[in-house]
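Box 4.2: Ligand-aware structure prediction
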Amino acid sequence: MSLKTLKTKKELKWSANDIVYQIYPRSFKDTTGNGIGDLQGIIEKLDYLHKILKVDAIWLCPIYKSPMKDFGYDIADYCQIDPLFGNFKLFDNLVKKAHGRGLKILMDFVPNHTSDQHPWFIESRSALKNPKRDWYIWQKPKPDGSPPNNWLSRFGGSAWTFDPKTKQYYLHSFLPCQPDLNWRNPQVQKEMRKILEFWLVKGVDGFRLDALYHIIKDDKFRDNPINPRYIPGHDDPYRQFLNVYDRGRPATLEILNKFCGVIGQHKNKFLVSEVFYQTKVAELKTYYKLCQAGLHAPFNFNFIRLPWSAWAYRSFLDNYEENLSEGDCPNYVLGNHDRSRVASRLESRKKARLLAMLVFTLKGMPFIYYGEEIGMSNVPVKNNEQLDPWGKNVPGFGLGRDAYRTPMQWSAQKYAGFSKTKPWLPVARNYLFFNVKKELADKKSFLSLYRNLISFRKKSKAILEGNYYPLNIRSQNVFAYVRESETEKVLVLLNFASKTQKISLPFAMAELVCNTFLSRKKGQKINLNKLYLKAFEGYLFKLKK
Ligand code: NOJ
């Protein structure tokens, strides 16, 4: 691997309030005319991200060399860029141009598994005595020839695949072509450390750790217990066992600490880890505690799971706010490349606007999934046109992820301005109404709401530094809170109900920053003694100190 150091002029610092924009490179902007997004496309849109949206960092889903069986999450070489996306010249240019604008870059890093095309695996499977045999997880069949235990792959079927050449099974938490690495092997750890260093030297500002929860498995390979709540035919078959031994093992934290150790050796780097199945604040807390060196946060996925009620959101936040310590970085996710787009999950753009107001008025890092800012929704993909292996392998449970990975809608041009050719996934039918160009010109659009909230947030000491006080108000459907710093006080009112709610608060007149529909004039004074919040409407006010 070549360690050509990239000299960047600026050392960009992370702040615990940075806004991170997630790019799924295949779907962001195609400049080569093959219907698939690329690095040059991202470079061309940096001004949009920096000047228009004003985010602070971008997270790139995998761009490494890959056979693309899981669209890049199956890596064949961690130190090469897949030619589909570009090359190192383009990558270096991306880093330079992003840094020049003050934008940081987070690389998606996939430590749990490689592609079966990775030279390590090719060697590992070649012979029982191969020096890389123990880099992956191999086990003998049971006496009757069946897999070593009952562990299942997240993407369907057994987590074990028999390899006829050496007559053993290898483990794969995802597809059979994504064999799991053996993180108990110090050589694997050493090699991974080198790879992280390679990218840090290239100038990246941190990593998103993919599937961290799967990284260590029970060393005795015990069967998972049966899930008593599993309903055959109704539930995803993966749920038939409780994942006691194949994921979320206590040693996960030891591995995380190794990553943190690497990060901690460099200045201003950040790690965020995907621990999808851990959502309780107490569990999230354990991931903060352990990583002493370097800035690290476990993703908080609660906002994509909570039931729709003011109470549910408030009680989660009260708990999160109370339990995170100084230096722990709260963060908020409304959607990503594995989960439904927020506007579709909630079946309402009004509700999605409400959650936007929520995340941008809290302390912490909001993550924006590309297109979320223009209110993009899921795009139905016909069964026979599905590309995502998850949906194809486990049909009938709505697990396919193509619907939320469709091309970014830039304009009303053909293919939404994403590409000049037919894109790899269909463009949303509604792209004529929901696209960046149109929404920029529309003062009440989704994008305008994002821009209003982000610009206000960036200057607001109350939001960035202030305390959080939930208010106990009469309407249980309204989540009301104050954010207050020494110099500024803001009030947020979020109506979770589908009916108008009357509010009466003793704050006299308040200055309107915006309402979620952007229907009322900014800066006007509003009497909070009698305010009507429409269905799913939110208000952000400045209060007198
Ligand atoms: C989690 C990633 O977010 C997902 O997209 C991928 O398919 C799996 N890990 C396997 O790498």
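In the box above, the bound molecule is 1-deoxynojirimycin. The CA atoms of residues 116 and 177 lie 5 Å apart.
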